[in-house]
């Protein structure tokens, strides 16, 4: 099993029936340790932590964890497709100002 940086790993918790998503941030050069970070709640980020590389591989091969191929937060893939609501509101206001300005300029020329 090959683990690489930025890989998403889903850990199954049978007692709570919840899935915990974690991202691999860093792998040591000798592949003895990895740094993982929980990405379940973007508003309540936790600190990254170290874990043994071999232990993580055993969990994936044993079925307690699995690699996840879909990005849970699509804004990381294409942030431009998800504009900020404040940006949308500001854009609408500026559009109204432009229309008003055009109407005023057009009326003055007549």
Topology:
Blueprint: E1 8-13, E2 18-27, E3 33-38, E4 49-52, H1 53-62, E5 65-68, H2 85-109
Q: How would you explain this protein's 3D organization?
A:
The protein is of the alpha+beta class and about 110 residues long. The chain is built from two helices and five strands. The protein has a five-stranded antiparallel beta sheet, covered by helices on one side. Strand 2 and strand 3 (about 35-40) form a beta hairpin. The protein is elongated and about 75 Å long.
Principal-axes geometry comes out as: elongated
Unreliable runs: none
**CATH architecture name of the largest domain:** Roll
Distance between the termini: 76 Å
What is the fold-level CATH name, i.e. the topology of the largest domain?
SH3 type barrels
Number of helices: 2
Percent of residues in helical segments? 25-40%
Characteristics:
110 residues, alpha+beta, SH3 type barrels, 2 domains, 2 helices, 32% helix
Structure summary:
It contains two helices and five strands, in the order ββββαβα. It is of the alpha+beta class.
């Amino acid at each position: 099993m090959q683990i690489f940086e930025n890989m998403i790993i889903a850990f199954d918790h049978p007692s709570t029936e919840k899935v915990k998503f974690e991202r691999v941030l860093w792998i040591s050069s000798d592949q003895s340790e990895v740094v993982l970070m929980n990405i379940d709640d973007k508003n309540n980020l936790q600190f990254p932590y170290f874990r043994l590389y071999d232990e993580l591989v055993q969990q994936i091969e044993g079925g307690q964890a699995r690699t996840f191929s879909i990005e849970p937060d699509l804004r990381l893939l294409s942030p431009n497709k998800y504009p900020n609501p404040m940006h949308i509101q500001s854009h609408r206001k500026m559009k109204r100002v432009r229309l008003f300005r055009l109407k005023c300029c057009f009326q003055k020329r007549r």
